[in-house]
């Protein structure tokens, strides 16, 4: 039941804000299910691929998708994925968690201000 709640919240956040994996799924998998951060990240990425596909399709049906810019952003991001995954496997999980927390706080502050 808790996993279904995590999925529902992630789906809602994805549809509303374009986020869900890193900001919702990862923390809840770690807190509620005691996943290790690396496993939570990988699990979240697979889940968000499914969520993002459906969300992008739904937004596309409303005419809210710029496909060319999405591809322009997505293709170079692949290099970032490779670099980030490589780095995550080599940096202590505590450091990754700390960086992640700082990014979330900075994002929250920038949204409020």
Describe the structure in your own words:
By secondary structure, the protein is an all-alpha fold. It has helices at 2-17, 21-33, 37-61, 67-88, 93-112. The radius of gyration is 15 Å and the shape is globular. It starts with a helix and ends with a helix. The mean pLDDT is 89.
- Gyration radius, in Å: 15 Å
N- to C-terminal distance = 36 Å
Structural class assignment: mainly alpha
The average pLDDT value, as a whole number, equals 89
Globular, elongated, flat, extended or rod-shaped: what is the shape?
Answer: globular
**How many distinct domains?**
1
Largest sheet: none
Continuous helix count: 5
Which blocks of ≥5 consecutive residues have pLDDT under 50?
Answer: none
Share of helix among residues?
A: over 70%
Number of strands: 0
Order of helical and strand elements: HHHHH
Percent of residues in beta strands? Answer: under 5%
How is the topology of this model organized?
Layout: H1 2-17, H2 21-33, H3 37-61, H4 67-88, H5 93-112
Helix pairs in contact: 1-2, 1-3, 2-3
Brief account:
With 113 residues, this protein is mostly helical. The chain contains five helices and no strands.
């Amino acid at each position: 039941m808790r996993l279904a709640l995590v999925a529902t919240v992630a789906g809602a956040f994805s549809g509303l804000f374009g986020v869900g994996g890193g900001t919702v799924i990862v923390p809840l998998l770690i807190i509620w299910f005691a996943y290790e951060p690396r496993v939570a990240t990988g699990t979240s990425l697979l889940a968000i691929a499914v969520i993002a596909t459906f969300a992008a399709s739904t937004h596309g049906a409303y005419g809210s998708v710029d496909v060319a810019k999405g591809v322009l952003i997505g293709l170079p991001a692949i290099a970032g994925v490779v670099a980030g995954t490589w780095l995550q496997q080599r940096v202590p999980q505590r450091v990754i968690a700390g960086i992640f927390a700082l990014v979330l706080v900075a994002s929250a502050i920038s949204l409020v201000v």
